[in-house]
Amino acid sequence: MAAGSAAPTSGEYIVHHLTHLNTTGHAQKAVVDWSVLNIDTLFYSVVLGLATIFILWLAARKATSGVPGRFQAAIEILVDMVSEQAKGIVHSAESRKFVSPLALTVFVWIFFMNAMDLVPVDLLPRIGEMFGIHYQRVVATADLNAALGMSIGVLLICIYYNIKIKGIGGWIHELFTAPFGSHPLLYPVNFVMQMIEFVAKTVSHGMRLFGNMYAGELVFMLIALLGGTATVFGFVGHVIAGSIWAIFHIMIITLQAFIFMMLTLVYVGQAHEAH
Amino acid sequence: MNLNATLFAQLVVFFILAWFTMQFVWPPIVKALDERAKKIADGLAAAERGKQDLELATKRSTDALREGKEKAAELIANAEKRGAQLIEEAKANAKAEADRIVAGAKAEIEQEAVRAKEQLREQVAALVVTGAEQILRREINAQAHSDILATIKQDL
C-alpha cells in the first residue's frame, strides 16, 4: 500500500496511482492543457529510449559477419524480423532505410516501456516517496500523451512519404479524388473521408496501445488492492491473480509493441501506394 | 488521461530515437547480416564444388584402378603365352637334338658294323685261303689257283 499517515481508501489509492508527476505538482485539472508536462512519462520514456538505443548500439558496434555471440544473435533475430516485415509491407528500398530502423526502435522502445508494467506497482512510487516525489506513473505507454505522441509521429512520417512519393500536387489530387473517384461533386466527400481516415488511423493507433497498457496497469492495481486487504484470502488471491495476470501480460506487452510496429509499417506502406 | 505538452516532447524523442537507430544501429547490423549471408552462400558453393571435385577424383581413381588391373591382366597373359612358347621351343629343340644324336649314333653303329664286316670278311678270306692253301698244298700248286681263290674271296 502507498505510504501515508493514514491508510487511503481503495478509491484514493487508485486515483493516487493514476496521477502523473507533472510540472504543476498536482493532478491536471483541464482535459487538455498544453502548458503542463508529465515529468514521470518523460523521464521513463527517455531513460528507456536511451536504454533501447544503447542496447541496440552495443550490438551494432561489435556486429561481425563471423560467428555471432548470443547477444548479437538475439539482436539480429529482432533486426531480421523487422527487416522481413518491412520488406513485405513497404515496397521501396529507399524508404526502408529509414522506416525499418524506425520500426525496430519503436518495437524495442515500446516493449521496454510496456515492460515497466511488470515491475510491482507500488515499488517505484514507494521509492519515489522516500525522496519526496508523491506522484509517479512508471508505464509511459499508459499515458495517452506518449502513445498519441508516437502515433502522431507516424502520421507525420506518412504525410512526408505521401508528399515525397506522389508530389505535393499528386497528394492533394488524391485527397480529393480517392476513394470514390474524380468528380467535382465527390471532391468534398472524398476529402472528408480522407481526413476521417487519417484521424481514425492516428487516434486508433495511439489509443490501442494506451488503452491496453492503461487497462493492464489498472488490473495490477486492483490485484495489489486485493493483497492490501492483508487477509489470507487477499494474500492467496494476490499471488494467484498477480502471477496469472503478469504471465498473461508478458504476451500483452510484446503483442502491443509488435502491433504498434506493424501498424507503423502498414501506414507508411499505404502512404506509398497511389490510389 | 489528460492531454498536455508531454505529447510533443514524446514526439520529439520518438524522432530522435528513430534517427539514432537509423544512423548508428541499423546499417552495421544489416551489413553484418548481409555479409554473413554471403559468406554462408560462398561456403555452400565451395562445399558443392568440393563435392563435385571429389566425385571427379573418385571416378578418375576408379578408372585408373581399372586400367591398371587390365594392364596387369594383359601382362600376365602375355607372360603366360611367352612361357608356353618358350617351353614349346625348348621341347622342339630338345627333340631335334635328340634326333640328331640318335641319327649320329645310328650312323656310327652302321659304320662300325661295316668295318667289322670288312674285317671279318678279310679274316675269313685269310682263314679260307689258309685252309685252302693247306688243302691244296697237298694237291695243287697254290700259284696256279690263286685267281680262283681271289674270286672266291670276292664272293665271301
Give the helix/strand layout.
The complex is a heterodimer of chains A (275) and B (156).
Chain A: H1 10-17, E1 32-33, H2 39-61, H3 70-89, H4 93-115, H5 123-130, H6 144-177, H7 187-228, H8 232-272
Chain B: E1 3-4, H1 6-139, H2 146-155
Coiled coil (chain B): 62-126
Keywords (chain B): ATP synthesis, Cell membrane, CF(0), Coiled coil, Hydrogen ion transport, Ion transport, Membrane, Transmembrane, Transmembrane helix, Transport
Family (chain B): Belongs to the ATPase B chain family.
What can be said about this structure in brief?
The complex is a heterodimer of chains A (275) and B (156). By secondary structure, chain A is an all-alpha fold.
Polypeptide structure, described:
The complex is a heterodimer of chains A (275) and B (156). Chain A is globular. Chain A has 275 residues and is an all-alpha fold. Mean pLDDT of chain A is 89; it is low at 1-5. Chain A contains eight helices and one strand. Chain A starts with 9 loop residues before the first helix and ends with a helix. Chain A has one domain. Chain A has helices at residues 10-17, 39-61, 70-89, 93-115, 123-130, 144-177, 187-228, 232-272; one strand spanning 32-33. In chain A, helix 4 (93-115) packs antiparallel against helix 8 (232-272), helix 6 packs antiparallel against helix 7 (187-228) and helix 7 (187-228) packs antiparallel against helix 8. With 156 residues, chain B is an all-alpha fold. Chain B has one domain (37-155). Chain B has helices at 6-139, 146-155, and one strand spanning 3-4. Chain B is rod-shaped and about 195 Å long. In chain B, 10% of the residues are buried. At the A-B interface, strand 1, helix 2, helix 3, helix 4 and helix 6 of A face strand 1 and helix 1 of B. Strand 1 of chain A pairs parallel with strand 1 (3-4) of chain B, so a sheet runs across the interface. Chain A: Key component of the proton channel; it plays a direct role in the translocation of protons across the membrane.
